[in-house]
Design brief:
CATH topology of the largest domain: TIM Barrel
Oligomer: single chain
CATH class of the largest domain: Alpha Beta
Largest sheet: 8 strands, parallel, barrel
Radius of gyration: 24 Å
Shape: globular
Strand content: 5-15%
Length: about 525
């Protein structure tokens, strides 16, 4: 029996995955019984290469994926477990990963996760201690033998795990400041250890072809790309159209098409199955390594999609690609449009520098202050280090400096006093106060038209950071720094002192100097 890693290594194979949505309640609930029966059918099918099991999808509490995954694994089918950062901190995620490895689950789809929308006795508090980049980096280090600290400062290297790590990306975004950061974060995910990529749900073949083209031209040609094919139904189409699922867009023309077909005697079933089959054919035609079937709740639906796709001629996908192009007015595309195919061409579209409301006086002041006060080797940085080292409490530094730090950073950045500051890496925008998920390594996939998925947070800080950097012609350096993992042990201490004395995360990775100034080459990330 081939492992998923072995299947992905064979470029001649087009793989089929099916998503199993977990349910709320115990395994004795009727919904769980149905899910288990569906899983059994999938496990018995030779056409299904792996089954993917969700982790509290949509921010709802559900049965842990391990419960549904065990019978599938024991039946000899490859299982991919979703592991997200919304409900567990880094210790919990590491524990979960050790348990998965011990149980024989070696395939993980690492994601930041949806913001919680429910919970017992009200809304649950999100965690987001680390993000998808931090999780991928953790799993990759476990694969290489994670160092474990013991008593009296002795350490040893733990046994290596064998995780095949997957990641998710989304380029179905409206604005340039959303699309390009998603591409840059995709590159960082692969650099940190992701071995296969699943794209987000989308219904625009031009954007789908653009993702393939971007990976081919940016050193990711050999990274298997799996196309997300969602089986729509009238209810799901309405939810997507109304923006109720973060990161998923279903435009007005496509919604109207779905609504019309939903009025047919079969409630649109035949149309939706064929629509999904056409998307599978497009993925195959574009050179994707497989299709990931979501929105399926019965084995008969999976069989129908695959059976319909087999009836298509090899070149039919090109016509399907012209049909399934549901973008939005004014949508940004990285690559030029081919009028003959409707898909992306290798020629990049121009990206003129336009005025942005996010290029502010505070941004300019921050760059200057960082360059003079915190760039390694400057006179003020050296003096600050000496003052803090000889202060009564080196973790706080001299009292007047601490007061100045708290006052200035509260006014300028709404600082939360985390002590391990990421301002220089996000164009002087605070991820603690201005990002619902505390994303320190690029954007999550939940933005909609540039705005955070969580009400009250406004424009995504990574879109804002991109537009600031673009003003200086440095937008491609957005994620050049080594992956950031915040040290919670520094909370309520002076970030200035921690920077000057080399205690923060930046000190471990030779952090780049201030944005807008020369940056040293970051340490390579081992993956």
């Amino acid at each position: 029996m081939q492992t998923l890693r072995e299947k992905l290594a064979d470029p001649s194979r087009f793989l089929i995955a099916a998503e199993l949505l977990s349910v709320r309640g115990s395994m004795s609930e009727s919904t769980a019984i149905k899910a288990r029966a569906f899983a059994g059918d999938l496990a018995a099918s030779p056409e299904i290469d792996w089954i993917s099991i969700t982790d509290n999808a949509g921010g709802h509490p559900q049965l842990a994926p391990l419960a549904l995954g065990r019978p599938i694994l024991y039946a000899g089918k490859e299982v991919v477990i979703h592991l997200t950062c919304k409900d567990l901190n880094r210790n919990g995620l590491e524990s979960e990963a050790w348990m998965l490895s011990s149980e024989g689950f070696h395939n993980i789809l690492a994601m930041t996760g949806d913001y919680p929308v429910a919970g017992s006795e009200g809304l649950a508090k999100p965690v987001f201690d680390i993000d998808s980049i931090g999780l991928i980096s953790l799993l990759s280090r476990m694969n290489h033998g994670l160092g474990a600290q013991e008593a009296r400062n002795h350490s040893h290297r733990l046994e290596k795990t064998h995780f095949c790590i997957g990641a998710v990306t989304s380029n179905f975004k409206l604005r340039e400041g959303e699309v390009i950061p998603q591409y840059l974060k995709l590159q960082k995910k692969v650099e940190c250890g992701a071995r296969f990529i699943v794209n987000q749900i989308g219904f625009d073949s031009r954007k789908t072809s653009e993702l393939r083209l971007y990976m081919d031209t940016h050193g990711m040609r050999d990274t298997p790309l799996i196309g997300n094919v969602f089986l729509l139904n009238p209810r799901a189409a309405r939810m997507f159209h109304e923006g109720r699922i973060p990161g998923v867009v279903l435009t007005a023309p496509l919604w109207e098409l779905c609504r019309q077909h939903a009025q047919s005697p079969d409630n649109g079933k035949a149309f939706f199955l064929e629509f999904a089959a056409k998307q599978v054919a497009i993925c195959r035609g574009l050179g994707f390594r497989g299709a990931y079937l979501g929105g399926v709740h019965s084995f008969s639906a999976v069989e129908s999609i695959l059976a319909i796709e087999r009836t298509f001629a090899p070149g039919d996908w090109q016509q399907f690609a012209r049909e399934i192009q549901f973008s939005r007015p004014g949508e940004f595309f990285c690559y030029a449009h081919d009028p003959d195919t409707g898909l992306a061409t290798p020629q990049e579209n121009p990206r003129p520098r336009l005025p942005s409301k996010h290029v502010t006086a505070a941004w300019q002041l921050s760059k200057f202050s960082h360059a003079t006060m915190f760039a390694p080797g400057t006179a003020i940085a050296q003096l600050g280090g000496k003052l803090c080292a000889h202060s009564k409490d080196p973790s706080q530094g001299p009292r007047p400096l601490r007061v100045l730090e708290q006052l200035s950073k509260t006014v300028l950045y709404h600082c939360k006093d985390c002590g391990d500051c990421s301002l220089p890496e996000i164009a002087y925008l605070c991820p603690e106060s201005q990002c619902a998920k505390n994303q320190r390594n690029g954007p999550c996939g939940g933005t909609r038209e540039g705005r955070c998925e969580v009400a009250g947070f406004g424009d995504c800080i990574w879109l804002r950071a991109y537009e600031r950097l673009k003003h200086d012609g440095q937008e491609q350096t957005l994620l050049d720094h080594a992956p950031v993992v915040q040290n919670q042990g520094l909370r309520r201490t002076s970030a200035w002192a921690n920077s000057w004395l080399g205690r923060d995360h930046a000190a471990k990775h030779h952090a780049p100097a201030a944005v807008g100034h020369a940056t040293p080459t970051p340490e390579p990330v081992k993956s």
